[in-house]
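Board notes (copied after class):
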Amino acid sequence: MQKWSLNNFHFVACVLHSVLFHVSVRMLGDAGGYNGWPKARGIFFNDKKTFLVWINEEDHLRFISMQKGGDVGEVYRRLVSVSTECVDTYTNYMCITK
């Protein structure tokens, strides 16, 4: 997965790919959703941009699985696969028993 720094080019690319909202969304602005960029926030995504992980956007952690077309099963399988891997990695890292 790659991490985008939010320079102007990347910001525009994120908006165009529906990954980021444009700063004109008033409700997010009023709630402080645009404060502190890019500190303590990140967007990670796969090469096809069909799976994204947001850290500290509106939520603490957000998984997004998406793709064009109507194959909802593939989108769901990808979401389950990655989220399961994240839980397993975290569990092993924190030495937590399931």
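Comment from the instructor: Helices lie at 8-16, 26-30, 72-93. The chain has three helices and four strands.
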